Amino acid sequence: xxxxxxxxxxxxxxxxxxxxxxxxxxxxxxxxxxxxxxxxxxxxxxxxxxxxxxxxxxxxxxxxxxxxxxxxxxxxxxxxxxxxxxxxxxxxxxxxxxxxxxxxxxxxxxxxxxxxxxxxxxxxxxxxxxxxxxxxxxxxxxxxxxxxxxxxxxxxxxxxxxxxxxxxxxxxxxxxxxxxxxxxxxxxxxxxxxxxxxxxxxxxxxxxxxxxxxxxxxxxxxxxxxxxxxxxxxxxxxxxxxxxxxxx
Length: 248
What we know:
Elements: H1 2-45, H2 57-87, H3 96-118, H4 132-164, H5 166-187, H6 200-235
Helix pairs in contact: 1-2, 1-6, 2-3, 3-4, 3-6, 4-5
């Protein structure tokens, strides 16, 4: 059963990856090209030699981007299926579709939105090469902390629900999550390396497009996998149903 759900998760990730590629190629590609042109103009003005390209831009925004996003989508879809397998019937008493959608929504908030508040995506020509290691470490630290805080909030909601009720327990746990994440965002160092002459609209469009790509990925995985998993679970004889609701 787990193996079959894993394959369905990878299939949902593949579907999501194809849609993300179409979105990124259409809307993200031109923004990256504009930012690269700004970077090259700045390097030329400073008398720096242009960096050699290992792959042409046609390859990068074409087959290279397609392989990258579909492989990433399948990997995320596989992990998503494993999490669903653990959660369904143990943590969640909802149906397959609702559980899948809830996992996707929570993952989008914890993995995409929260880190992007402190360390948003930057296009080429933004950021200094000597700080890339620090920026990467802080970004992934923010993801790990956000996921850990989300898990702790879910555990807290389960413990509070017998006394406060499902909704009140969930609200209290959500409030605790927001407070903790707010403190972390405040304590972690800020990094602002956007050049003064970089177009603000281009930066804004790049960052919103980046979030849009993730929104498509998690939405499609959540909906597609939920539909595929529901069909599999409803067709499987003797499947263990959820025995204990999480929040009641």
